[in-house]
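Entry 14. Two folds queued back to back today. First construct below, sequence then structure tokens.
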Amino acid sequence: MDALPEDLDLLPSTRRALGHRIAVAQNEGRAPSVVAAVARGGALVWEGSRSPADGHGPDGNVQYRIGSITKTFTAVLVMRLRDEGLLALGDPLEKHLPGTGAGEVTVRQLLAHAGGLAAETPGEWWERSSASLRPELSDVLGTEPFLFEPGWRHHYSNPGYTLLGSLVEAVRGKPWEEVLRAEVLEPLGLDRTTVQPQAPYADGWAVHPWADVLMPEPPEDLGLMAPAGQLWSTTRDLARFGQFLLHGDEQVLGAASVREMAVAAAPPEPGIAEFGYGLGVQLTESGGRRLAGHCGSLPGFVAGLWLNQAEDVVAVVLANCTSGLPVGTVAAELLTLVADAEPRFPEPWKPFEEADPVALELCGPWYWGPAAHVVRLRSNGELELGPAGAMGRAARFRAEPDGSWRGLNGYYAGETLRVVRRADGSLSHLDLGSFMFTRQPYDPEAPVPGGVDPKGWRGIG
């Protein structure tokens, strides 16, 4: 993480509010320790911790187990394979990892927990038992791996991410851990994120529900299940990883691909996920803001990581207790505290250095039937089409080499906008997925489908 720029330094009141929130969380959650961090604009802007040893709490260099946040790291590896052309997200697993008994499920369905697989492995509680009980994928999946038809619904699946880790190994020809270290951890400078704990690290504890006493939790190695939840990390490393998930890094995964990960790829599971699940990324809302990230837990540890694109804020909370402290909620509240108290300054408006005259010609009012819309040209070269009033569909468009425009978001994502001209070269209309936009409402000079009444517009009498 870069040094803190002066204009990102938080106000004392914001720092106190952040410190107070984790103090309350540690007290009410009865956690042996809590450590947290907030990053903004590529810089670590706040760190805090709380433990019974007053003045000697853990810092951002102390490792905690992060559980299912590991899944997001595994998803990044799979997206790298996709971007390199080594697989497609629509490929069935059998194409790259044959013989699992779950080969019909697609890579995308596994990433989005929409493969219909069971949530857990058969047999003993896998998080608290030896990996030697599950030496093969068949031991992880069992004889009947599917609970639902693949693609039918979102159902969180740890075995699904075990399959993705094995997929990475099959395509790369190397162990998941080795690929992760070489392709993600080292390029991003995450030298305190490891498969096995490296001192200094926190011990995991269970807290008795009705008495203020503790019991140590056994730190089992997860074996084949490692891609679903094995990693140990720190708040500083996770804050840096969160910044990567916001902006991308061409050494690892570009901005377009990390944005794709944060788009809902599966519907929400009733009562579980309000906004669905992306590709290795959980989606939620806090303080009216859409958040992406992941939470995790393993016996002795809970972890939360949330980020917000609009405010460029990342919040991380780690604790060493099995249950009782809602780290995901606390991390979301830390992010909201910063965004509400110190809203991000917008980027300075900048004009084009040299605007495209063809794109400039498209600017101004257009009409879909009688509904008024406006096309604007932004300095990044994109067109924005939106309603002139409160109602209507809006979208951004990117220029294509053939002179058309490709939709980037919303209802028109992936759709093509074509500029149609008359024989003399003048603008006739815009064709957007068969919808016609004209310069006048139901322009009689345009080939409006169904025609235009020759008497034109009139009063009611």
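Second construct, same run, same settings:
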Amino acid sequence: MPEMHFHIRWPDGRREACYSPSLVVKDFLAVGESYALDDFVDKTRTALNIASERVREKYGFACSSAMAQLARIETAAKRQAPGGLVTVETFET
């Protein structure tokens, strides 16, 4: 199963490399696009849950790394000012 990293810039300017065990993130996010904070969290939640389920289907257990990444995204989002935009800078496979 191909894994990937997606590099983002939070509304406060901080950059972060995020992990996914699947390329499914590319179905929800696009490089160079900016997303409203809540929309970004919703999209990554959906993508990382799908990715984790793909791991479960293949290996018999969910992907704890995907769920940990989702928790980090949700926590970081709560520290951002409302109305901010998250920019997807690059995908790395």
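Quick look at the second one. The beta strands are 4-9, 15-20, 34-36, 85-92. The helical segments are 37-59, 64-78.
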